[in-house]
UniProtKB/TrEMBL annotation:
This is Esterase-like activity of phytase family protein. PANTHER family: BLR7070 PROTEIN, PHYTASE-LIKE DOMAIN-CONTAINING PROTEIN. Coiled coil: none annotated. Keywords: Signal. Pfam families: Phytase-like. Residues 71-363 form the Phytase-like domain. InterPro entries: Phytase-like_dom. Residues 1-24 form the signal peptide.
Length: 400
């Protein structure tokens, strides 16, 4: 039994079953997707010495009084592998909507497994800010620290130069930050696609549903292109068809190339999208259920080569997250492991045959694991029966 111990006054422990889980669970042959590691970050995890948060939260908070004395480390909506055994995880916009998240500071958290000693520390993180004034409209805070009322950050790519590209849902926008979390340029909008939050500010007509912007953001293996996947259908498109938009990082513009990912049903949503190689992506598809009502929680491979010529990304089921083999009963669960969370928003490829998946716990609201109890942020690694044959360039250089 290994422990992931959080540093400083957090004094929190992640219990991790199986050595080396942050780097995957080895290459033992399996015939079905199999759980190789389980970890759980307690729901009540906060950034020590930070600012109060949650003063605008209402509704059922599953027993947690609000406001909170500090900023919660919660709601992971994106993950980036640093290549040195650490991972940067993107906290969500706050408490579920623009109106109640003005005192939630947008932040990238860093988790760092130790190379020896069996521990993982939260070694810090960085707040997202706009000190140079690239955002042309009025922000929530005069100090230009970005909050969940300014942007709904849902997806992240870490470039080779250490800068971050982040996908937002309120625009939807692409945001480019330096390695210290400072915005480098004005938010990049998507032509003819406008979320309600931007429509309310500008007077434009909304063409997208609320919270249906860039839920997935993938980087091409050569680093030149980003592929930004909307969570919702654009007005006029077939319900359940989601646009995957190609963006050229050299020119700072969209190329005009758009691919279509079709959901299994119009009421479903995506949780993340990352690249496997130059043509294939891993995409989380989910319903809105949790606990007993969770049914569709899946990982698909989507291929832009469209071999059947139907105008859609080709889809192949990779993992049913509600039916994962667990022969070792990791985490104290039975021989079939389920991931019954409302929002599952993080996937990362650890090696040719292993992926890691994290939920977004929507702290303090979601209770998919135990009814009436706020969900933890869980980390699982899954061994695959066959290699993904990923492009080796998707794995970051050591120590990036």
């Amino acid at each position: 039994m290994r422990k992931i111990v959080y540093s400083g006054s957090l004094a929190l422990v992640l219990t991790l079953t199986l050595a080396g889980a942050a780097r995957a669970g080895g290459h033992a042959h399996v015939t079905t997707p199999t759980l190789t590691a389980f970890a759980s970050l307690p729901a009540a995890t906060f950034v020590p010495g930070s600012e109060p948060s949650g003063s605008l939260v209402t509704g059922n908070t599953n027993g947690f009084p609000v406001p909170f004395a500090d900023q919660p480390v919660q709601g992971f909506s994106g993950i980036a592998n640093n290549g040195d055994g650490s991972f940067d995880v993107l906290s969500d916009n706050g408490y579920g909507n623009q109106a109640n998240s003005a005192d939630f500071l947008l932040r990238v958290q860093r988790l760092a497994p130790a190379k020896a000693g069996g521990t993982v520390d939260v070694v810090g993180g960085l707040n997202l800010t706009d000190p140079a004034g690239h955002v042309p409209w009025r922000l929530t805070r005069d100090d230009r620290a970005l909050t969940g009322a300014d942007f709904d950050v849902e997806s992240i790519v870490k470039a080779d130069d250490g800068t971050y590209w982040i996908g937002d849902e309120f625009g939807p926008y692409l945001l480019h930050f330096d390695r210290a979390g400072r915005l480098l340029a004005a938010p990049v909008p998507l032509d003819k696609v406008t979320a309600p939050e931007t429509a309310a500010r500008t007077g434009a007509t909304a063409t997208l549903g609320g919270s249906k912007g860039f839920e997935g953001l993938a980087e091409s293996p050569d680093g030149r292109y980003l592929y930004a996947l909307l969570e919702g259908s654009v007005a006029g498109d077939t319900a359940g068809d989601l646009r995957l938009n190609e963006f050229d990082t050299r020119s700072g513009r969209y190329t005009g190339k758009t691919y279509v990912y079709r959901l299994g049903a119009a009421g479903l949503a995506i949780g993340d999208a990352i690249a496997i190689d130059g043509n294939r992506f891993l995409i989380i598809e989910r319903d809105g259920g949790q606990g007993a009502t969770a049914v569709v929680k899946r990982l698909y491979i989507a291929d832009k080569r469209d071999r059947d010529h139907d105008g859609l990304l080709d889809k192949t089921l990779l993992v049913d997250l509600m039916n994962i083999a667990n022969p070792r009963r990791l985490g104290g669960f039975g021989t079939t492991f389920t991931f019954p969370f409302q929002t599952i928003e993080d996937v990362v490829i650890l090696d040719d045959k292993t992926v890691a998946v994290l939920n977004d716990n929507n702290f303090p609201f979601s209770s998919g694991r135990t009814a009436g109890v706020a969900d933890n942020n869980e980390w699982i690694t899954i061994a695959l029966p066959a290699s993904l044959h990923p492009d080796k360039r998707i794995f970051p250089a050591q120590g990036r």
